[in-house]
Write a sequence for this structure.
């Protein structure tokens, strides 16, 4: 098998779910987004593991993601978080996924599609309380809830989304508290109209870590299920231990001595300042190792970190292992993983761990291990 692989630690996944359940309480439902191939971890395998761990709902961003789960015989409720175009309504109804809805047009379109296919469909009313992405304004919530029922759809839940719940800045904390209040007020107005809102849910990972009042009937943890941030204690008053699930590793395939003054890789951006040994790793931006990490990232071989030198190529990169290397050809090099989280790597290129694991290319095999 190709030496560059993403080892997926299912034991760590189970651990993270346990930690979340310990925090929010065993009675709360858990809905885990497996969108974008489960944040790069492999949607079908991860979905099966999550359901075995007692997760009640899955969530996806696109209808084709839902269809892939159904094709793998996954029958659990699937929330569709993103909006879709009318051409996708037949497949949406066929998969039976519970779509987020936010306007009359979409509700009417889905209701008609379900009627034409002689079936029922449940939806979740999405209320925009401050994300500014999809959702109705809170004042519209009771009339849309009524419209859903009058159209013949069932209302499985009411939801909102929190854009700064993962921040510790005072203004973001005020904003999130105000959002949760707007949301619970809107839910009350739905109840006051004599309508059962179904499952009420708001909390993403940030909400789970910082806002117990956002836990409501169900939580929607994404990134914390996959083990990030690897040090959440800075955000929380309580202790929750998260373990990264993905480890990106490769092997040393070539080593050679180079003299002081030798340049390495495209563009000659790095030149040896001493005689040293350069090792080549068969991983590059074609695998999802961002080229902007060139001359910045270190990789770990047997507890020691070695710098990537010169530009990262599409399929390969080079590290300086020093003049008297402890490294041997065929040694395993870890780019990130448990104990060596992708948080620092993400910060280096001004992004977040989500984008790092999502960017690991399909050609990198996912290897599932139980620890
Ligand atoms: C992706 C997503 C989540 C999970 O977000 P995390 O920050 O990964 O916990 C929750 N809710 C919605 C609507 C989402 O799109």
């Amino acid at each position: 098998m190709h030496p560059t692989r993403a080892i997926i630690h299912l034991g760590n996944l189970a651990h993270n779910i346990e930690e979340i359940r310990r925090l929010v309480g065993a009675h709360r439902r858990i809905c885990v987004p497996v969108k974008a191939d489960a944040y790069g971890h492999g949607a079908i395998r991860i979905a099966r593991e999550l359901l075995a761990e007692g997760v009640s709902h899955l969530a996806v961003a696109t209808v084709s993601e839902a269809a892939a789960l159904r094709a793998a015989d996954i029958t659990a409720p699937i929330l569709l978080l993103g909006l879709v175009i009318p051409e996708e309504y037949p497949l949406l109804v066929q998969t039976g996924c519970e779509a987020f809805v936010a306007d009359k047009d979409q509700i009417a379109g889905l209701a008609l599609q379900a009627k034409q296919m002689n079936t029922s469909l449940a939806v979740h009313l999405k209320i925009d309380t401050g994300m500014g992405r999809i959702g109705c304004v809170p004042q519209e919530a009771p009339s849309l809830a009524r419209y859903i029922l009058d159209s013949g759809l069932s209302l499985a839940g009411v939801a909102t989304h929190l854009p700064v719940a993962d921040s510790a800045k005072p203004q973001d904390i005020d904003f999130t508290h105000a959002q949760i209040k707007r949301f619970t007020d809107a839910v009350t107005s739905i109840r006051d109209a004599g309508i059962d809102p179904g499952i009420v849910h708001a909390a993403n990972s940030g909400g789970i870590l910082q806002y117990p009042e956002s836990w409501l009937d169900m939580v929607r943890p994404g990134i914390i299920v996959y083990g990030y941030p690897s040090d959440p204690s800075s955000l929380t008053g309580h202790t929750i231990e998260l373990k990264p699930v993905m480890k990106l590793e490769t092997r040393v395939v070539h080593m050679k001595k180079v003299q002081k003054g030798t340049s390495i890789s495209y563009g000659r951006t790095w030149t040896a300042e001493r005689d040293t040994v350069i090792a080549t790793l068969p991983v590059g931006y074609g695998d999802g190792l961002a080229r902007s990490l060139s001359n910045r990232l270190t990789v770990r071989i047997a507890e020691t970190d070695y710098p990537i030198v010169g530009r990262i190529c599409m399929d390969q990169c080079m590290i300086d292992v020093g003049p008297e290397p402890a490294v041997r050809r065929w040694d395993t090099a870890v780019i990130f993983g448990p104990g060596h989280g992708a948080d620092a790597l993400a910060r280096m290129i001004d992004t977040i761990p989500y984008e790092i694991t999502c960017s690991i290319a399909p050609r990198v095999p996912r290897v599932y291990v139980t620890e």
Q: What stands out?
A: The two ends are 20 Å apart (CA to CA). The chain has two domains: 10-226, 246-369. The mean pLDDT is 97. The longest helix spans residues 170-192.
